[in-house]
Amino acid sequence: MKALATATTVLLAIGAVPASAAETKDMKIALSNNFAGNSWRQAMLKSWETVTKQAVADGVVAEAPAFTTSENQATEQAAQIQNMILQGYNAIVIDAASPTALNGAIRQACDAGIVVVTFDGIATEPCAYRIAVDFKKLGGMQVDYFKSRGIKGNLLEVRGLAGVFVDDEIHDGIEAGVKADPDLKIVGSVHGNWTQTVAQKEVAGILPTLPDVAAVATQGGDGFGTAQAFKDAGRKTPVIFLGNREDELSWWKQQKDATGYQTMSASIAPGSSTFAFWVAKKLLAGEKLPQDMVLPITVVTQDNLEDQLKHTEKGSVTNVEYKEADVSGLLAGLKK
Amino acid sequence: MPRFLSWSAAERLLPALTLAALLAGIFHQQPRAMSYFGLDLLLNLSIPIIFATLAQMMIIAINDLDLSIGAFVSLVACIGSTLLTTEPVLGVLALLAGIAAYGLVGALVEWRRLPSIVVTLGLSFVWLGLAVIVLPTPGGRAPAVLSTLVRVKPPFAPLPVYVAAVVALLGWLAVSRSSMGVVLRGAGGNPRSVARAGWSMLAIRVSVYATAGVLGTLAGLSLLGLTTSGDANIASRYTLVSIASVILGGASFTGGRVFPVGAVLGAMTLTLAASFLTFMRISPDWQIGAQGFILIAVLALRALLTRWKETS
């Protein structure tokens, strides 16, 4: 019976709900991350560190460490989350290895009174907050941009990794946009796997079979390779929608200076981790937020290209680190 | 020379001492863990690992190695989160078919004298493929019975402690105390004399593999109960973890030397090792290395004990 009594005390201690709603300076927020092996995740962790270090220094929260599992495995991340429950964090921000396999651990965290915010890799457990990316919109906005430029004719689509949810979503967005627009027609489609070299090879392979291409819809990480393939084939460079990678933006800048080339670029900022951080902080402070939120897409245009390029590190992705006020503004926009 | 403790008893106690040392370290780092709730959180993911470890132990007992157990556990979790929930009868049949397939693999290994490593490595891709067919994108829902079952809160100690104790006891009775256990270990130690004594190696291998299939199924279902939904890759790391746990528990790869109690303790030790390193705030870049170091340290200690035993 004593064990049970102790258990209850601990439960109460761990599940401590903020007494005064607005005070978060003694609270601890942890980041649970499953993978750190690419430039996007590295930038994501770095943004988290920059923003949370400042937040801790400002006395917004007591502590906000980031943890990455040593292997990219859902069971390991579930164990990591259970450890965080024990360590007494008030909120856990998660980039999940699997949309479902962490649900059990997340449920336990919620039951212990912990705020759980998932972003990028989101989890389906209803008690968790989700900050998702509207990948369909990322597809649709490309067609909208081509339309706004008055582009008519043939469209080449460079897709991502086959079978991955993100690829399907962006593709659906592009397809829906093209269907609604009789002036555009998809004449070819290849899988560039979000990798410049693969995209270059695949596009080079399909180009000889294609008529004149007016525009290329992409998914990010593949625009520069596509441009190279067109150049090598000696064809006129179409309007290639880019994905905020540093090499893509540098290429765009070159073309812009040389020939006045115009296009647009969009992707998800790795700084979304900081967005999730502020959402967690707001929830701890007692604010009511919707369970499902949509992350804004970071857009680079003809006008702010130079500015964005300056802030994008070599080999990285255009990043946005959010401040609390930015998040409040975006969330206010969402509610309308 | 009379001794307080015989060397082989010390060797047998090593897995328990390792676990105790690790628990002490965790309690020191994180006093909150020293409670019903804390132990439950720390140990509940060890339940499926314990079952997977025992499955691996059965195979290792007859000098084989199963490189497909992780994929098989994932497949069971996928079947459990789809078929078993929507069409229970079909789901149970599918699980039974999985166990039968395991038995058949045992027959294949024996008949054609194939190396088990190669067969099971190939098989792991078959299991993964089937898992992706059953559940193309992560999801599904565990049958309510399963998720309630693994969340039972028994008095005095959390569920994982009871499961570990009961499974270790049953395993010990079956492998170390029963006549079937003698045949099993004999089949690993000296298959030829077991065959000459009139036992069919085919029957032995098939039943060993089928038992491993049953244990793998239990691992998959308990994992599913804990996670509440499936993913085709959910347990891929169990293959190596289970082998490491068996060895950590005092077993050898050959000769039919296996210890169920040690294997259960080994599985719990490996589950806790990761938590311990997290509590120590060791950077993830070093964690795999540190886990390996724990493993090597324990094995080195065991080798030393064996040497002392031989020289004394």
UniProtKB/TrEMBL annotation, chain A:
Record flagged with keyword Amino-acid biosynthesis: no
Domain Periplasmic binding protein: 29-288
Gene3D superfamilies in the record: 3.40.50.2300
A single MF term (Gene Ontology): carbohydrate binding
Cellular compartment(s): Cell envelope
GO cellular component: cell envelope
Keywords (A to Z) from UniProt: Signal
Signal peptide: 1-21
Protein family according to the UniProt entry: Belongs to the bacterial solute-binding protein 2 family.
Name under which the protein is recorded: ABC transporter substrate-binding protein
From TrEMBL, chain B:
Tree of life domain: Bacteria
Entry-linked InterPro entries: ABC_transp_permease
GO annotation, cellular component aspect: plasma membrane
Keywords, ordered alphabetically: Cell inner membrane, Cell membrane, Membrane, Transmembrane, Transmembrane helix, Transport
Coiled-coil positions: none
Predominant place of localization: membrane
Segments crossing the lipid bilayer: 39-60, 67-84, 90-109, 116-136, 156-175, 202-226, 238-256, 263-282, 288-305
Annotated localization: Cell membrane
UniProt-recorded Gene Ontology molecular function terms: transmembrane transporter activity
Membrane topology: Multi-pass membrane protein
One Pfam family matching this protein: BPD_transp_2
PANTHER family xrefs: ABC TRANSPORTER PERMEASE PROTEIN YPHD-RELATED (PTHR32196:SF21), ABC TRANSPORTER PERMEASE PROTEIN YPHD-RELATED-RELATED (PTHR32196)
Name of the protein described by the UniProt record: ABC transporter permease
Taxonomy of the source species: Bacteria, Pseudomonadati, Pseudomonadota, Alphaproteobacteria, Hyphomicrobiales
